[in-house]
Amino acid sequence: DAKTTQPDSMESTEGETVHLPCSHATISGNEYIYWYRQVPLQGPEYVTHGLQQNTTNSMAFLAIASDRKSSTLILPHVSLRDAAVYHCILRVQGGSAKLIFGEGTKLTVSS
Amino acid sequence: GPKVLQIPSHQIIDMGQMVTLNCDPVSNHLYFYWYKQILGQQMEFLVNFYNGKVMEKSKLFKDQFSVERPDGSYFTLKIQPTALEDSAVYFCASSLSGGHYAEQFFGPGTRLTVL
Hints:
The complex is a heterodimer of chains A (111) and B (115). Chain A is mostly beta strands and 111 residues long. Chain A is 0% helix and 47% strand. In chain A, the strands form 2 sheets. Chain A has a 5-stranded mixed beta sheet, with no helix packed on it. Chain A has a 4-stranded antiparallel beta sheet with strand order 2-7-6-5, with no helix packed on it. Chain B is mainly β.
């Protein structure tokens, strides 16, 4: 699977909209972009995923660049509960079910 | 949302002993996973399991490791014998379907300390 690059950490304040970038310059046409987050002392939680089109759900908006070499997870109006490590993960269509976690981005939210 | 439970939350054992970690997956899920996370490090895939069989395993899934889910009860990870390097948090996950599109639901983890 192709590699992703994320900043080690980001800081925000409650109520802000946060943009978490992910670079995947060598992504293949059949690789989906997944985001999971992990709060300390808990297991990871699915956030969203996409292939080519932007997607939105109750948790976040995923903006995917037209060349698919990068994506941005947008968290509107963050709260303290959104503080977590966010992982951008590529998964091959028809491929393994396993999740390959990197370091992710540690998002800190202050009040 | 759907919940995965793990029992116990913390287990302390002596090196060389056997340990069984228990996972109660989401009730209608068919695919099960174990991941290992050493403190301060990345989470790593160990194994996935479907229909009574190991579908895929990583090099971390040593010969001392085994998994099973007898008769729809707990999905278990057994380590026999344990080693010091097995100390980690073990996360169980389950999904309704397999493949890249399957959303995996994770439990809160079992912290294993091997002395």
